[in-house]
Amino acid sequence: MSCYQLDNELWFPPLEEAEDYGLLAVGGDLSPERLLLAYSLGIFPWYNAGEPILWWSPDPRCVLFPAKLHVSRSLQRFLGKCSYRISFNENFAGVIYWCRRLRVALDGSGTWITPEMKQAYTRLHELGFAHSIECWDDDQLVGGLYGICIGRCFFGESMFSRRKNASKVVLIHLLGYLQQKGFKMLDCQQPTDHLLGMGAEEISRQEFVRYLEQAEVPPHGSFVSQF
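Structure (tokenized):
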């Protein structure tokens, strides 16, 4: 299969045209309209600075269903003792900043959070589609996560931790909130040991699209965040 070149028109090729490793298309832009359309179809951007925009739809897809969250006994004990404070949408800019800074410092993988990506997701935050969850130790931002919400699906983008278990605490609070609101799933995109250990699983791309439909994520039309 070949990778599709996007133009100025607002479109994406069929998901089944993606390469075996998930790459579907190249080019286009990071406008709110294109980003929302991409997520509603099961597509997300991921590329490094200096590269064209790359659009992905991996098969299988890593997801976490709120009701299937696994919290280990040791983490339960930690939750009972820690004094972290959790907030929602209190410091979106700070969460993106630390997601990039810590990943670059650790292994260089944060370079995909380019200035253009930061600007694009900040615009989605201003429009009510991108959200952050923060973990505070006194007045210090020590953990966080940000992502996109359409309908009743939360598309996780990145997370960070500067204190013990901070990102896990954020994830637990987010999933509790999503379950309370009737969300179908948290899209994790790609599996990690961290996520799999907390109950994430891999499903086929076809299953993922079916869950998007159940989560009231329209493939076209008016997008609404239920966050």
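The CA atoms of residues 121 and 130 lie 6 Å apart. The two ends are 37 Å apart (CA to CA).
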